[in-house]
């Protein structure tokens, strides 16, 4: 149980285009989802916390107009990188917390974004 | 505010040797502590967690960790390393709250020598 998927697993795009990454909880309802960014050989950096039906809460320094987050249902959150640039190339990981509460987060497999 | 420090960005041990990955935390209230493992180009997998109760926690793949409040530590150990243990390991801390974030350490890369 508690499986989280991400799609796509990797994506290559041209500079200036937008890319959407999906995060789904497959076998549970997730009231809260989290989006992280991970640069090579570094730890995970929390970008934003997404609650179903409400606006995401962004961490300091994360541009909310560039990284659009939508959490329209209890099983789906999306991250859209708008007008992507090479510096946005990174590994993006989502996680989900169950609706039943608790502190544990279940992580997706990650999405590798490369912007040319 | 909570924080996590992992001592040693890279640890190398021989196959069959003891694995010890160090983690110290800072928290003003009793924390919840986690160890995650990450294989290349993959997400994070939970190895074990400490919430309350027994301070020695056993996890998957033969790993265990001991919560030592007096030392503010949560070191990860495994008696005998396998080649398949080579990965990145992250220690993390959070507080019991629906709004609490998980704070990750900087990670330790574990290499296993044949």
Explain how this protein is built:
- The complex is a heterodimer of chains A (116) and B (114).
- By secondary structure, chain A is an all-beta fold.
- Helix content of chain A is 0%, strand content 54%.
- In chain A, the strands form 2 sheets. In chain A, strands 2, 4, 5, 6, 9, 10 and 11 form a 7-stranded mixed β-sheet that branches. A 4-stranded antiparallel β-sheet of chain A has the order 1-3-8-7, with no helix packed on it.
- The radius of gyration of chain A is 13 Å and the shape is globular.
- Chain B is mainly beta and 114 residues long.
- In chain B, the strands form 2 sheets. In chain B, strands 2, 4, 5, 9, 10 and 11 form a 6-stranded mixed β-sheet that branches. Chain B has a 5-stranded antiparallel β-sheet with strand order 1-3-8-7-6, with no helix packed on it.
- The relative contact order of chain B is 0.33.
- The mean pLDDT of chain B is 92.
- Classes of the chains: A mainly beta (116), B mainly beta (114).
> Separation of termini of chain B?
41 Å
The protein's oligomeric status is heterodimer
Interface with most residues = A-B, 23 and 26 residues
| Mean of residue pLDDT values of chain B | 92
Name the poorly predicted regions of chain A.
Answer: none
The biggest sheet of chain A, with number of strands, parallel, antiparallel or mixed sense and barrel status, is: 7 strands, mixed
Query: Secondary-structure element sequence of chain A?
Result: EEEEEEEEEEE
Instruction: Give the distance, in angstroms, between the N- and C-terminal Cα atoms of chain A.
Output: 37 Å
The gyration radius over C-alpha positions of chain B equals 14 Å
Helix content of chain A: under 10%
**What share of the residues of chain B lie within helices?**
under 10%
Main beta-sheet annotation of chain B: 6 strands, mixed
List its salient traits.
heterodimer, A: 116 residues, mainly beta, four-stranded antiparallel β-sheet, globular, B: 114 residues
